[in-house]
Automatic annotation (TrEMBL), chain A:
This is TrfA protein. Pfam families: CENP-N. Residues 299-354, 403-422 are annotated as: Disordered. Residues 407-417 have a biased composition (Basic and acidic residues). Transmembrane segments: none annotated. Gene3D superfamilies: 3.10.20.720. One of its GO terms (biological process) is chromosome segregation. InterPro entries: Chl4/mis15/CENP-N. It comes from Cylindrodendrum hubeiense.
UniProtKB/TrEMBL annotation, chain B:
The keyword Nucleotide-binding does not apply. This is Cenp-O kinetochore centromere component. The lineage of its organism: Eukaryota, Fungi, Dikarya, Ascomycota, Pezizomycotina. Its main location: nucleus. Pfam families: CENP-O (PF09496). It is found in: Chromosome, Centromere; Nucleus. Belongs to the CENP-O/MCM21 family. Keywords: Centromere, Chromosome, Nucleus. One of its GO terms (cellular component) is Mis6-Sim4 complex. It comes from Cylindrodendrum hubeiense.
Length: 516, 289
């Protein structure tokens, strides 16, 4: 126990111990598998992290051993290391390891550092355990003042600078943004197989940076203190001015409003921490949320795939080298030869109409999705929400139009169909062209809505859910359930968003453009 | 010994099969190359031309027709390749498969060639469309550029969007946009190349743990998004950083020890550097003591 506890604005030290009887500690350890528990303990005993994770050892002058002690304390970290290495070879239950850690070697409590490592080990074990939202880092113009003391901040669209991120400077600045009645603990971590740097932020409501902030020993009030703690992760991807934030997770029961406010606090504080004198940045949500970091890294990562999704992915494929020095005629991606060889049919063989339709559907799916939306690519997005704001097709158009009736004979009057479709597209384009600009188009659209109030615009929300949403859509196209030619572009996932508003058949804000 | 024989025999056969397969693959590749060369040759084209074979006009030869089509395709492709080799930015037309695409799905594609160590890499693509009614103003639709290239800023400068309040059309300069963009791409790749050169120049590949001294550099890496900063680490955990400008000229050199800035080493390494090769040379001299 510290002698005096003075409220400060410093961060929580890594060596601060949490009582090992704390249910939160037990909960966080019991999530891990036996193997990761042992390797975690070995990591704690590593020379680099030992100062922050000192185990309970027998003192040299302390001779009186407790005979009832099930886990007699070891003499040195080396001995302990040996012990855990042996445990790695043996078989046993997970519970034994947990009780060995909590009641034996770290009976005096786990440090915040150890808890952070435990949480991060859990993240390595279950990479999809967190739900990430992607944000873009955008430069701001120098603020202009409008008479009063209010600063107007505008995004500098013409800026060519790309923000730089330096972990320790960032942390220092972030700490300055933290309010004095909240204490935080930070831990950086680099996952093994992802090009991101993860920052774990552990937040607790306390003015103290000492044991007082955590201890559950004195009376009734402080145990609730740990319950109010929350954990937020921020991931900094390599080579891209973006970051991913998770929803905060509390150990106790907190209202969703509270955790939301913490996230917004972080979203407010992070750009300030990234900014430097005369160089300001802001965060902009990119409407992309997923549990799969790989999927987010594809859409907001450092590669070529950021704004070339769906069918455009054929242009971003790094493996295909199209050197102009190679004079061999490349086989176009959709040519008969390439598709034939993959399906494995003889060219001469007559195809039944069903087979031909299936093959056609497959080729169309290839055209619309390119290399994306493959079930096994490990880039599945689990939830997509789209709001449709297009006007309902008028009754007159519906009456004679089989465009919207799936059971109509589609092959019979293909010509008529395409003709009408084209005219409809033209109308949509004309409409779109009448109001086009960057992103402050709300006013104009409202005006237009008032103009043709006869048309009915129902608000339709479509939600796709599954293990890999875009792969599912692709399979529907391949199976011929969704018409691949008439399917709108946002159904291929090429806009790289998981929530969006569709107007005129395209995701709004993007205007069908990969630029944001 | 007898037990070894059958396995070695099967191994030999496997080896032979593998080598034959490799040979077949090379031959097939050669065949393709030779076909394309023959098809694209001018003399082949004149032979295939029906005008030279007037007596065949009555009885059109389907095989010849097919060959002619193939030859035309090949020649077109060769011409495209030639353009790509000679000018590093080429354009092409594509069709947007989205039925709701603006401007009927007409897309102008730009292809930016990048080279590294004498080889053509996969080009970068920028797709432009025309979403504005009645005007020819372009807008970026899709692209495959890395985030290190400030595409959005360049587009805002040279291909500005029409502001909602103003009537006057924005000034577009596609030519300038393309030139600036290509410059940024090439600069970025050159900076990447510089850090690779530094790594090679310091001989990081042929180092072993035994012959390492405290002043040897063990790691060189790029420290920021735009590849303008290079980080290097000495064997005794001191780390340094080189800051370059857009064109890869050295601006600053800093050294950090375990406790903040290491002014000693900074002083020793201080010099008027122009290119990263000078830094590599100085670092090598420093390592040798």
């Amino acid at each position: 126990m510290a002698r005096i506890s003075v409220p400060t604005t410093a961060r929580l030290p890594s060596t601060l111990r949490v009582d090992s009887t704390n249910p939160a500690v037990q909960k966080s350890l019991s999530r891990l598998s036996r193997e990761s528990l042992i390797s975690l303990a070995l990591d704690w005993l590593d020379d680099g992290s030992l100062p922050n994770a000192i185990p309970f050892l027998q003192r040299a002058d302390d001779e009186d051993e407790d005979p009832d002690d099930i886990y007699p304390p070891c003499q040195s970290p080396d001995e302990l290391r040996q012990l855990y290495l042996e445990m790695q070879q043996q078989k046993g239950s997970k519970r034994d390891v947990i009780s060995r850690i909590l009641e034996g070697d770290w009976r005096h409590g786990l440090t915040l550092y150890q808890l952070a490592m435990g949480d991060l080990a859990y993240f390595e074990q279950n990479p999809t355990s967190q739900k990430w939202s992607a944000y873009q880092i955008l430069p701001l113009l120098p603020p202009s003042r409008n008479g009063e003391d209010e600063e107007i901040l505008k995004v500098d669209r013409k800026s060519l600078t790309i923000p730089r991120f330096h972990p320790s400077t960032f942390l220092q600045n972030l700490q300055n943004q933290v309010l004095p009645d909240v204490k935080t603990h930070y831990q950086f971590h680099r996952p093994k197989d992802l090009p991101v740097l993860i920052l774990r932020i552990f937040v607790i409501d306390s003015p103290y940076t000492t044991n007082l902030a955590l201890s559950s020993r004195d009376g009734s009030g402080t145990a609730a203190n740990f319950d109010s703690s929350r954990t937020v992760y921020i991931a900094f991807p390599d080579g891209v001015p973006a970051l991913y934030v998770t929803k905060s997770q509390s150990t106790g029961s907190t209202s969703s409003g509270e955790s939301k406010s913490l996230q917004s606090l972080i979203v407010d504080g992070v750009p300030k921490a990234l900014s430097r004198p005369r160089e300001r940045y802001t965060l902009k949500s990119s409407n992309l949320t997923s549990r799969n970091l790989d999927a987010i890294l594809e859409k907001k990562g450092s590669g070529r795939t950021n704004s070339a999704g769906g069918g455009w992915s054929i242009y971003s494929d790094e493996k295909k080298k199209q050197s102009p020095l190679d004079t061999v005629l490349p086989t176009p991606p959709l040519s008969r030869e390439s598709s034939d060889s993959s399906i494995g049919q003889k060219r001469g063989a007559e195809l039944t109409p069903v087979q031909r339709a299936a093959k056609r559907a497959k080729v169309i799916a290839e055209a619309r999705f390119g290399e994306s939306g493959i079930v096994t690519d490990g880039r599945g997005i689990e939830r997509v929400e789209i709001v449709l704001q297009d006007t309902f097709p008028s009754i007159r158009a519906l009456a004679g139009d089989d465009d919207y009736e799936r059971d109509a004979d589609q092959t019979g009057d293909e010509n008529r169909n395409t003709k009408r479709r084209r005219s409809k597209i033209d109308a949509v384009i004309r409409e779109a062209n009448s109001l086009d600009d960057d992103d402050d188009d709300v006013v104009m659209e409202d005006a237009e809505d008032a103009e043709d109030s006869q048309t009915w615009t129902p608000t339709i929300k479509i939600s796709f859910q599954g293990a890999h949403v875009w792969a599912g859509v692709r399979q529907l196209v391949e199976a011929g359930i969704v018409d691949g030619e008439r399917m709108p572009g946002w159904m291929t996932g090429e806009d790289g968003v998981t929530t969006g508003i569709v107007r005129h058949g395209r995701i709004r804000g993007h205007k069908g453009s990969g630029m944001t | 010994m007898s037990s070894v024989n059958p396995t070695s025999e099967s191994d030999l056969l496997d080896e032979e099969i593998a080598s034959l397969k490799a040979q077949a693959a090379t031959l097939r590749k050669n065949l393709k190359i030779e076909t394309s060369t023959i098809l694209s040759a001018a003399s082949t084209h004149t032979i295939l031309q029906p005008s030279a074979m007037t007596h065949n006009l009555r009885r059109p030869n389907p095989a010849r027709k097919k060959l002619l089509v193939e030859s035309d395709k090949q020649r077109a492709y060769m011409q495209q390749c030639l353009h790509r080799i000679c000018s590093s930015v080429t354009s092409f037309k594509v069709h947007d498969p989205d039925p709701n695409a603006v401007d009927g799905g007409h897309i102008l594609g730009l292809r930016f060639e990048v080279m590294s160590r004498g080889q053509f890499l996969r080009p970068y693509y920028v797709m432009l469309n025309r979403p504005y009614s009645g005007s020819k103003h372009l807008r970026i639709h899709r692209h495959t550029l890395p985030p290190a290239v400030p595409l959005a800023g360049l587009a805002a400068r040279h291909l500005p969007a029409r502001r909602p309040g103003s009537d006057e059309p924005p000034q577009h300069d596609l030519d300038r946009f393309v030139r600036m963009l290509r410059r940024e791409i090439v600069r970025y790749h050159n900076r990447l190349g510089v850090s690779a050169d530094l790594r090679r120049g310091l001989g990081l590949h042929d180092q072993t743990a035994e012959n390492l001294t405290a002043n040897d550099i063990v790691d060189v890496g790029i420290a920021d998004i735009e590849a303008k900063q290079i980080r290097f680490t000495w064997a005794d955990e001191r780390s340094g950083r080189v800051v370059m400008d857009d064109d890869g000229k050295v601006l600053k050199l800093m050294v950090f020890g375990k406790q903040g800035r290491d002014w000693e080493t900074t002083k020793e390494l201080y010099g008027n550097y122009d290119r990263i090769e000078d830094v590599a040379k100085r670092l090598r001299e420093y390592a040798q003591g």
